[in-house]
């Protein structure tokens, strides 16, 4: 009888999911620490919500459909109720606020970071699981709260290591477009969403592509056809005029930085001030302008741009995006383009889905992985690397307790240290220390123990010497290995680390 082969699963990742290595995680955690520090300083409280929510709490705000299995990863629980992995952190916040409404001090100011999952087609730089970091004010009416969020976004940019001129917060109010659509008699929800999605693609498709999507639709390079909003020629012209007249790349050409936003507001007054809904948006932008000025935020930090609409349907007023302006290059010299790395806005109807009463809210969110990758490419995440590492070599297998004690002593002094626990001779252990990027390898054999000393290899210095020195005699003169008294080990390593800074 033939033997049945044991099943061996193939080691493979599901599409759209990624493994994040140590350097990536450290960069992301450094960014989260920087942002969390800003949120704490501004009086926001941390919150953590479950990975799963009931799908009916998320479904209305999925990208295209309301079915539980569209856009999210869903399953049924033991009661046959659909649960889904959270699509973002805002819908769980709305559920939490509604569930605990009577007990919360309002406005409820919270920040949260964590994984989110999207059941969408993966692609380059587009993952099905990633980390978001949000700050929101629930129960905060009026443009003052929106202005605070825009200022907060600017502060996060600075805390992440960006300087003035390396980013801009682009600000709009969705009611500007609502007023135009109302004047055209095309304010139905379906048509409004198609118009919003078309405008949201301006950076990628340009004005011509947006005009196609505002009209009958557009066929992309693969042949896929996207149905348009169905606006006629005159209606398309009015929407495009809104984009052209205060988009920073068109309207403010030649304007100085100081008067850029003031000039944009004047232009909006002239063209759209007579439309009631648009009028409310202009008044809100005026108030935001004044508050941000009082906070020291100038057009070098934020700019009015009517092409910003944000894709999700739940925004009801001011919206904004944080755009990275700083540039970097790939190894071949070609430029890296970062674009938008976060955004947010006002969403006054989200909590009302649960409570039946309007609860004003506004917030800011950024994708941690995308932002951290951009900052790492720019070299702006200070402290994102690992602390220096010391590896204590297991020179004698029967003295492991001694080596663990040395590593513990180093850790107690604030250093990062480990005793080697794998198998192999001294050469293999030193190769391990090199591959780990360790700064020092500590060696205590029988000779060192009897003499009350410790041998230390300065691995970073050794790597530098290996690159710079070619002469054998000169190599022998280098002091990449040194000996110290056992009781001086910690102080000597600390001194050498300080000298290397």
TrEMBL record:
The keyword Transcription does not apply. InterPro entries: aa-tRNA-synth_II (IPR006195), aa-tRNA-synth_II/BPL/LPL (IPR045864), Anticodon-bd (IPR004154), Anticodon-bd_dom_sf (IPR036621), His-tRNA-ligase (IPR015807), HisRS-like_core (IPR041715), HisRS/HisZ (IPR004516), HisRS_anticodon (IPR033656). One of its GO terms (cellular component) is cytoplasm. Residues 31-388 form the Aminoacyl-transfer RNA synthetases class-II family profile domain. It is found in: Cytoplasm. Pfam families: HGTP_anticodon, tRNA-synt_His. Coiled coil: none annotated. It catalyses: tRNA(His) + L-histidine + ATP = L-histidyl-tRNA(His) + AMP + diphosphate + H(+). GO terms for molecular function: ATP binding; histidine-tRNA ligase activity. GO terms for biological process: histidyl-tRNA aminoacylation. CDD domains: HisRS-like_core, HisRS_anticodon. SUPFAM superfamilies: Class II aaRS ABD-related (SSF52954), Class II aaRS and biotin synthetases (SSF55681). It comes from the Bacteria. The keyword Acetylation does not apply. L-histidine binds at residues 88-90, 118, 132, 136, 310, 314-315. Its EC number is 6.1.1.21. Keywords: Aminoacyl-tRNA synthetase, ATP-binding, Cytoplasm, Ligase, Nucleotide-binding, Protein biosynthesis. NCBIfam families: hisS. Homodimer. Belongs to the class-II aminoacyl-tRNA synthetase family. This is Histidine--tRNA ligase. It comes from Marinicauda algicola.
